[in-house]
Amino acid sequence: MDAGLVPLIKADPEVARRYEILMSIPGIGPVAATAMIVDMPELGTMTPKEAASLAGLAPVSRQSGSWKGKAHIFGG
User: How many domains does the chain have?
Assistant: First the structure.
C-alpha cells in the first residue's frame, strides 16, 4: 500500500469517515479499505444493491420473455 494515500484519505472528513467504516468491518484491513476507496469512490452514496452490483457480487438473471436462464454473478 502506498503510505502517502492514508494522509490524503484522513485529510478529507467525508472520505476519512468512509475509511473508518470500512476498517470496522471484520476482514477489511488498511490495504483493502484504501483500495475500495480509490477504486469505488461511489461507496457511501449508493444503495447496498447498487454497491453489490458495482463490486460484482450481485446475481444478475438472464431472462427474456418466457425464456429463463441461470443467474450469474458478474460486473464490477
Answer: 2
